[in-house]
Design goal:
Helix content: 25-40%
Structural class: alpha/beta
Number of helices: 11
Protein name: Aldo/keto reductase
Keywords: Oxidoreductase
InterPro entries: AKR (IPR020471), Aldo-Keto_reductase (IPR050791), NAD(P)_OxRdtase_dom_sf (IPR036812), NADP_OxRdtase_dom (IPR023210)
Radius of gyration: 19 Å
CATH superfamily: NADP-dependent oxidoreductase domain
GO molecular function: oxidoreductase activity
CATH architecture: Alpha-Beta Barrel
Shape: globular
Strand order of the largest sheet: 3-4-5-8-9-10-11-12
Pfam families: Aldo_ket_red
Largest sheet: 8 strands, parallel
Oligomer: single chain
Length: about 325
């Protein structure tokens, strides 16, 4: 698979990465054996960018990856995150980005992952009561100590990115970005390009909506977070399913899947865009990876832009209480 630069960190990653969150929770039941097989296949087909966080499964996801990484560490660009603090079995959370917690969280992640260094370490969310300069200053200490190679921020504003970058170079910003979540285009993405920061797009398939496999009668597991998403409820869901029709139609014409068209659109937005679709299953992994070879024409890109312009999706990305921590 082709590779893309991870900002100015000197690291390169596969054009399509792998978001590992769903291997632990949030999208219904998961199976460790199945997840490990998917991780193995990802590496075999050239996917090198693996994304996790300490709060995914309250540590389970990092431990899962830690087991997988034994004997493979030098073949993977490993990204993890800190800042969202949860207790096991609970969904309530708080945000801690204090310098003391930065150090504590990193040590805990290194232990769970079984590695000496995390390639890309993100502040998952920011506590507005703690200046970003203090948080990034503590993260920079981790770089100097050899515990982290490059720094990242998630769901931040352009202004916050600039303040952080003035303290220590930021290699990547991770934010939701897809055909139905295009807010970054008028906010943080231009700032990333101004500063030479890579943009890691999470939920690039709209949490499954853009795959064409989701319908109004789709049954969601009790533990599936989409049950709480405004975009998957009532009239919003019906409106969003109509939007997906444009992606499905173009995919049928091209002989590809809607997921591949949606990912190809993202890759075409610039060489600094790094999608990390998540999956637990090898067939979906192979489908997503194949999108790296799909080159959409200027006319096809324009057609998708017209059908799903910025702001087209009905409903917010998260429930109201979670929206407060975005674009901080």
């Amino acid at each position: 698979m082709q590779t893309r630069a991870l900002g100015q960190s000197g690291l390169a990653v596969s054009a399509i990465g792998l978001g590992c969150m769903g291997m632990s929770e949030f999208y219904g039941p998961s199976d460790d054996a199945q997840s490990l097989a998917t991780l193995e296949h990802a590496l075999a087909i050239g996917i090198t960018h693996f994304d996790t966080a300490d709060m995914y499964g309250t540590g389970h996801n990092e431990r899962l990856l830690g087991g997988f990484l034994k004997g493979r560490r030098d073949r993977v660009v490993l990204a993890s995150k800190f800042g969202i603090v949860r207790l096991p079995g609970e969904h309530t959370r708080r945000i801690d980005t204090s310098p003391a917690y930065v150090r504590t969280a990193c040590e805990a992640s290194l232990q769970r992952l079984g590695v000496e260094t995390i390639d890309l370490y993100y502040a998952h969310r920011l506590n507005p009561e703690i200046p970003v300069e203090e948080t990034v200053g503590a993260m920079a200490d981790l770089v100097r100590a050899g515990k982290v190679r490059a720094l990242g921020l998630s769901e931040v504003s352009a202004a916050t990115l600039r303040r952080a970058h003035a303290v220590h170079p930021i290699a990547a910003v991770q934010t939701e970005y897809s055909l139905w979540s295009r807010d970054p285009e008028s906010g943080v993405l231009p700032a990333c390009r101004e500063l030479g920061v890579a943009f890691v797009a999470y939920a690039p398939l709209g949490r499954g909506m853009l795959t064409g496999h989701f319908g109004k009668d789709t049954e969601l597991a009790e533990s599936d977070i989409r049950r709480l998403s405004p975009r998957f409820q009532g009239e919003n869901l019906e409106a969003n399913l109509r939007l997906v029709g444009a992606v499905t139609a173009l995919a049928a014409e091209l002989g590809h899947t809607p997921a591949q068209v949606a990912l190809a659109w993202l890759l075409a937005q610039g060489p600094d865009i790094l999608p990390i679709p998540g999956t637990r299953r090898i067939p979906r992994l192979k489908e997503n990876a194949a999108a790296a070879a799909l080159m959409l024409s200027t006319e096809q890109l324009a057609r998708l832009d017209a059908a799903l312009p910025p702001g087209a999706a009905a409903g917010e990305r998260y429930p109201a209480d979670r929206m407060k921590g975005l674009n901080a």
